[in-house]
Amino acid sequence: MTQSTPESGNRAEGMGQEATVPMPGAATGGPVSHAIFRLARLHRMFAGQLLRRIGLHPGQELVMMHLWELGPQRQADLVRLLDSDAATMTRTVRRLEQAGFVRRRPSPTDKRASLIEPTAASQALRHEVERIWTQLEEISTAGLSDDERTAALHTLEHLEQNLVRAAAEPAGTEAEG
Q: What angle do CA 89, 68, 97 make, to 5 degrees?
């Protein structure tokens, strides 16, 4: 990951390329956080371009992956699985339903709940989603050796765990590193 600074003329260090989003002076205390922001933004943009071709928006494919893997789920369970919020999941499921990729059916065990299940139309989509995720992985990790890919994954998982721990701490306490 590269860092842009006013001194480097907003050039990606060591690569001779412009950073996608120049780092403002106020962000100099968080170069890793700024790099994560830039990476997440670009990754979502590429995912959106690839998924749009098959009628999905970023995030919808993750819902479908869980449904394909686990079978019908309550919407509340999808919220928990994807660490989402209820309003976002409601919109996502509604859009997937309108596209014909999921349907709702009453839960046999809880009359107040309905289950979200993948349709036959979505099963045809599964191969395309898998292909797109493979393509997105190749774009994202181009030029990295297997060892570098493993190290990058380890680092990203470590960063995620740091944030999970920090989110679980009572308000007002700071994470120790």
A: 45
Q: From CA 89, how far away is CA 63, in angstroms rounded?
A: 9
Sign of CA dihedral 159, 146, 18, 43: negative
103 near 72, Cβ under 8 Å? Answer: no
pLDDT tens figures, 39-89: 999 999 999 999 999 999 999 999 999 999 999 999 999 999 999 999 999
Question: Is 115:72 a contact under the CB 8 Å cutoff?
Answer: yes
Mean pLDDT of all residues in 151-158 = 96
pTM for this prediction: 0.78
CA distance 92 to 174: 34
Q: How many angstroms separate the CA atoms of 148 and 108, rounded? A: 48
Nearest to 42 by CA among 54, 58, 65, 53: 58
Task: Please name every residue paired with 106 in a beta bridge, in sequence order, or none if there are none.
Answer: 114
Return the SS3 of 70.
helix
Question: Which of these, 106, 126, 125, 128, lies nearest to 116 by C-alpha position?
Answer: 106
